[in-house]
Design brief:
alpha/beta, TIM Barrel, 8-stranded parallel beta barrel
Length: about 260
């Protein structure tokens, strides 16, 4: 059995509790668990020696003290980098996590959404999840057609979300909705458990179309309070946010000393 959505609207911590903490780090994941998030989304890329690690950007200088491409550095080299100080001096000492370390950290504590940033990360990530025995506690996102083909050959067990191609800027809303509807059809044919949509692409018609096709609607990245309430009213069942404590409080599931939210 693959991952099952909870009966309430699911709130996912985007790269961990990445509003206040450095993204994709142990601290961000621990904070997401502490505030009561339903799931943590993390980004996966490979090092030069094919170790899956948590990193959104291809270049190290974006979130670490390193420089150059992650793909040009070995895991041994990456472990020496600081992955927290870019966010603030108080976060110095955080380091890049491997997927294996992340799976151990999350075990029996919180499910994971693995956003695979490159196709070469698919098979190593599946192997890591399978070896950890966490098939039921993980979903895969970032997938389009090629990804589903690789996934189908490697496993039928992991729940997989379909990510539509990026909608070009400057096109009208009708054209954007048409692209999303085609993506819903494709996701259904590929056997996705849900469609993973950018916040701005979601409206009530899109939600109904996806649900009619048997797909869950997963939306990212939502930090605006009004928009969060609108999405829940549409029937969206999964929302990803940089500020999970705030959204949990808005949903009436967890009080938080944090108030307000920045617009997306």
């Amino acid at each position: 059995m693959s991952y099952q959505l909870p009966p309430w609207p699911q709130i996912i911590a985007h790269r961990g509790d990445s509003g206040p903490a450095p993204e994709n780090t142990r601290l961000a994941i621990e904070r997401a668990i502490d505030v009561g998030a339903d799931m943590v989304e993390v980004d996966i890329r490979l090092t030069k020696d094919d170790v899956p690690v948590l990193m959104h950007y291809p270049r190290l200088e974006e979130t670490t003290t390193g420089s150059g491409l992650l793909a040009d550095r070995t895991w041994e080299e990456v472990q020496r980098l600081d992955a927290g100080v870019w966010k603030g001096s108080e976060f110095a000492g955080e380091r890049v996590l491997s997927l294996d370390e992340t799976l151990d950290l999350a075990r029996d504590r919180i499910p994971l959404n693995l956003d695979l940033k490159t196709s070469d990360a698919i098979l190593p990530s599946i192997a890591a999840v399978r070896d950890a025995g966490l098939i039921d506690d993980v979903v895969i996102s970032g997938c389009q057609g090629e990804c589903f083909g690789i996934m189908a050959e490697a496993t039928a067990d992991l729940g997989t979300l379909f990510n539509p191609d990026r909608v070009p800027g400057g096109i009208g809303s009708d054209a954007a909705r048409s692209i999303v509807r085609r993506a819903i059809e494709q996701a259904s044919k590929l056997g996705a458990v849900g469609i993973n949509l950018r916040n701005g692409l979601v409206d009530p018609d899109v939600v109904v179309s996806a649900q009619t096709a048997g797909l869950g609607v997963w939306v990212f990245t939502v930090d605006d309070k009004k928009r969060f309430a609108e999405l829940l009213a549409m029937g969206v069942k999964s929302v990803t946010t940089n500020w999970p404590a705030r959204m949990l409080a808005l949903a009436g599931r967890r009080s938080s000393s944090e108030t307000g939210a920045s617009a997306e």
